[in-house]
Design brief:
Transcription Regulator spoIIAA; 15 strands; Rossmann fold; three-stranded parallel β-sheet; binds iron/sulfur cluster; 14 helices; five-stranded parallel β-sheet; 3 domains
């Protein structure tokens, strides 16, 4: 009889995309999917640390699974994802010890990197696919644990991403979302490790282009059609606050994927300070690239942004919005906002409200600040905004943006 696995995923889309690769790695070993926890031989829990409540749910789940474990000594429980990533990066070993003590039922704490990108994800959605383009983050926003859970940013090879997209197109997928903690810095590490020279003439051809010689005899893309060479690309240098910050390849990548002819190409998440003019040009040029851009602002107050270690002012954020609107008049924006960050005064919160009114976001994902282990704010600032105040501020923004838009769309 074949062994069965069951995977429970907490958290963001990146985790869900990672779980699709875990599924593929199990299936490659001849295992099949279980219906639930009860009939599984292997249970994998892919964890999230964005808030304390997400961690608490993991501890609660493992506690509940202990009964199953007592009934079936052969059952294996594997924990992976952010909680494990953070614990394994803690050189003192203390965090791993805490995980082991709090979850003695767990057989293995597995770093997500172990799954790697060698397994093509097994997707259940047959029309829309998530494609991870990078993992980790170099930005160290002071409230965020991601650089510690996922480590520094590592970009997937350009060709691998294009090949995966070609495979999806050939299978009939209609929509693609490119995933990364900061898609705008995609390729910075690849660039540093390679020698570049720009060649513009042999980019991938559009399969819908009837004059294309390479696609003349076939409706399908072939991996061998990939003449695109990353080493020939000229890196785009993103200028911010008067100086060049990082080199990136993201506009090229987005353009090549848009050319494959999907009905919709989306991308998350984008840091405002790395949003290049070249990226705006590419979005404007291809109608199948999303017209709803997710641009996390987190706060509309300059002092709070400084404390958050976000490298822009409210004015610069608004200027970027205007610049994008000028090129793409039909564009809409969604955002992320944290309320009640350390020391946030009423006046500072009001600046966020004012910015939201100016932008007119379609939707906002609002989080009440909660300290995260290892993050700079946890170490050097006080979580001094009372819960009731955070809740009130959350409701003000929820009513201003999300509730109002729900009524308008009703
Ligand atoms: S919030 Fe900041 S540190 Fe966290 S993943 Fe996003 S850009 Fe990176």
């Amino acid at each position: 009889m074949k062994l069965r696995y069951f995977i429970k995923t907490f958290g963001c889309q990146q985790n869900k995309a990672d779980s699709e690769r875990i599924v593929a790695s199990f299936e490659a070993r001849g295992m099949i999917s279980a219906k639930g926890y009860n009939d599984a031989n292997y249970i994998v829990i892919n964890t999230c640390m964005v808030r304390q409540s997400a961690e608490d749910r993991v501890y609660g789940l493992v506690r509940n699974l202990s009964k199953l474990k007592n009934e079936n000594s052969k059952l294996k429980i594997i924990v992976t994802g952010c909680m494990v990533g953070l614990a394994l990066r803690d050189k003192t070993g203390k965090l791993l010890k805490i995980l082991k003590e709090r979850m003695p039922e767990v057989d293995e704490f597995m770093p997500i990197e172990e799954v790697g990108f060698d397994f093509a994800p097994l997707r259940t959605d047959k029309t829309h696919a998530w494609i991870p383009i990078s993992n980790g983050c170099n930005n160290f926003c002071s409230y965020c644990v991601v650089p510690f859970t996922r480590g520094r940013e590592i970009s997937r090879p350009f060709e691998d991403i294009i090949k995966e997209a070609i495979g999806l197109k050939n299978k009939g997928y209609k929509e693609i979302t490119l995933l990364g903690q900061n898609v705008n810095s995609y390729g910075a590490d690849l660039i540093k490790n390679s020698k570049f020279e720009y060649r513009n003439s042999k980019q991938i051809q559009n399969p819908n282009d009837q004059n294309s010689k390479r696609f003349k005899n076939s409706n399908l893309f072939q991996a061998s059609d990939l003449e695109f060479q990353i080493s020939k690309l000229k890196p785009i240098y993103v200028k911010h606050l008067g100086r060049y910050r990082i080199p990136t390849l993201f506009p090229y990548l987005l353009e090549e994927i848009a050319k494959l002819g999907f009905e919709k190409v989306d991308f998350i998440s984008s840091n405002p300070w790395d949003f290049s003019d070249e990226l705006i040009e590419v979005i404007a040029k291809y109608k199948n690239i999303t017209r709803t851009i997710h641009l996390p602002v987190q706060s509309g107050d300059d002092n709070v942004l400084k404390r958050m270690n976000r490298w822009y002012t409210a004015k610069e954020y608004l200027k970027l919005i205007e610049k994008i609107r000028k090129k793409i008049p039909e564009v809409k924006f969604t955002t992320d906002i944290i309320v009640g960050f350390c020391g946030e005064t009423d006046k500072e919160f009001q600046n966020t409200v004012n910015l939201c009114k100016k932008v007119g976001f379609e939707k906002t994902y609002i989080a009440m600040y909660s300290p995260r282990p290892m993050a700079a704010a946890t170490k050097v600032m006080k979580d001094d905004v009372p819960y009731e105040v955070k809740k009130k501020r959350w409701k003000i923004l929820e009513d201003l943006i999300n509730k109002k838009n729900k009524l308008l769309n009703y």
